[in-house]
Amino acid sequence: MRMDRGKQEDEQVKQTKFLVGAATAAHQVEGNNKKSDYWAMEQLPGSNFSEPSLDAADHYHRYKEDLQLLADTGANAYRFSIEWARIEPQKGVYDETEIAHYREVLLTCHQLNLTPIVTLHHFTSPKWLITEGGWEAQTTIAYFRQYAQLIAERLGDLITYVCTINEANMGKQIRKLIEGMQAAAQQAPEAATEEKTADLQIGLNELQASDERAIFNQGLAGSFEIAPDKIQTFLAPRSEAGEAIIMACHQAAREAFKAIHPETQVGITFSLYDHQALPGAEALAEAGQQADFLDYLPYLEADDFLGVQNYTRKIHALPGQAVPEEPTRMTKMGYEFYPEALGNVLQAVAKQWHKPILVTENGVATDNDAERIEFMARAIEGVAQAKAAGVPVIGYCYWSLLDNFEWQLGYAQTFGLIAVDRKTQTRYPKESLAYLHQIVEKMQNS
Ligand code: BGC
After folding, report:
1. Cβ–Cβ under 8 Å, residues 344 and 386
2. By C-alpha distance, which of 349, 426, 423, 430 is closest to 393?
3. Rounded to the nearest whole angstrom, what is the distance from the C-alpha of residue 201 to the centroid of ligand 1?
4. Which residue among 184, 312, 342, 355 is buried most deeply as judged by most CB within 10 Å?
């Protein structure tokens, strides 16, 4: 199997160096992802997106400048996603210009000594896939396999790590949240609007006035050419059958990639909470960990690594049990500022997972960059402690490199190490970007 120089060097790096970098996802930073399902949904009247993504951070054209800023800190890794909707804008039609684009991005990573960690699917899908039944359709397994095979054939010589699917468990978490909201609405209709979606580690807005929803649904049906209740985007509530399809997609992509590049490290990522319990509620916390992670283990046996994504903790309580210390410090996203969650998650996961673990996302939305640095410092302390305790953690990617499009919550959520003036697309590195250097120093000497 051909292995180019960049990749051989990465192999050596992998043996010796702890990976430190930052993460992005195509739709959130590139701009003009026009063939995707999300683009279509954002543009519709009555949309529950607070604003459309439009040019995003124009990373599609400015990636060299962005990667240079990242590399200048001494960071050695960049996690990003390849956009399936760009590669295959119509079913079976591959866009050579887009393949060449991502080749350039990968080459830039190697030139800058950034190990590329490539996600094949980060929430957005080609619009045609959704019209074909999306993430509840058996046919998606073969489509995803073909796409993964194409990436392996055309770009795999430059890819060191592959995350097949970002937060494969998110559809299940969304289903549970919505079921909870519906149950609450039945019990106390007047209080239902107070239910918060901040229970998810992602910007989602399920609270939409019913008249707006009706308009939106009508637009969806026209745009996707199927009934709104058949529109299964990746972030739609997922059925049990859909869960099996996601895992089959992961396995198919892994097999396709490994068949061509056995040396590439292939894994998947999960949205993982630090599940904590008040006295008596331990079984609830265990059920949370079971649903978020342990249920998936049988499908991951042939994986090379696990991608852990954590933003906060979840405290489980019995019905009527009061949380003794209500969280007082919240992030802009509306969940608790609790950086220690990451170390706890690593220790919890390592009880059942003994292969390498890569922190593929961890971060905070805040306008106060000193607070971001505090978050990073406390989170990385937990990573260092986990590593010292024998957890096979091999890297840390902060979310996110740039202030970006936080899905339905739009651009107001500032997770970035680099601020972006979206009128001029000027980059303004924050102090926290330079802080990556301290993480490199700390982790490579630990
Ligand atoms: C997702 C990102 C998202 C981030 C912050 C993660 O769940 O992978 O796309 O922007 O959380 O909410």
Report:
1. no
2. 349
3. 6
4. 342
pLDDT digits (tens, 9 = 90+) for 401-420: 999 999 999 999 999 999 99
Atom of ligand 1 nearest to the CA of 363: 5
The reply to whether ligand 1 has any atom less than 6 angstroms from the CB of 403 is no
Q: Of 13-27, 148-162, 224-238, 253-267, which gets the smallest average pLDDT?
A: 13-27
Instruction: Say if CB 409 and CB 332 are below 8 A apart.
Output: no
Cis bond before residue 50 (omega within 30° of 0)? no
Give tens-digit pLDDT for 214-233: 999 999 999 999 999 999 99
Atom of ligand 1 nearest to the CA of 404: 10
Whole-angstrom distance, CA of residue 310 vs CA of residue 413: 17
Which residues are within 8 A (CB) of 364 and not within 5 positions of it... i.e. 6 or more apart?
A: 311, 331, 337, 339, 371, 372, 375, 415
| Predicted confidence (pLDDT) per residue in 95-122, tens digit | 999 999 999 999 999 999 999 999 999 9
What's the gap in Å between 186 CA and the centre of ligand 1? 30
- Residues designated as active site: 167
Whether 48 contacts 300, CB under 8 Å: no
Which residue out of 361, 375, 404 has the highest number of ligand 1 atoms within 8 Å of its CB and is therefore the one to mutate? 361
Q: Is 293 in the pocket of ligand 1 (CB under 6 A)?
A: no
CB 202 less than 6 A from any atom of ligand 1? yes
For the CA of 201, the closest atom of ligand 1 is: 7
Which ranges of 112-161 would DSSP assign to H, the alpha helix? 127-131, 139-155
- Is the pTM higher than 0.90? yes
Task: Confirm or reject: Cβ of 285 under 6 Å from ligand 1.
Answer: no
pLDDT in tens, 171-180: 999 998 888 8
Q: Which two tokens stand for residue 218?
A: 């009508």
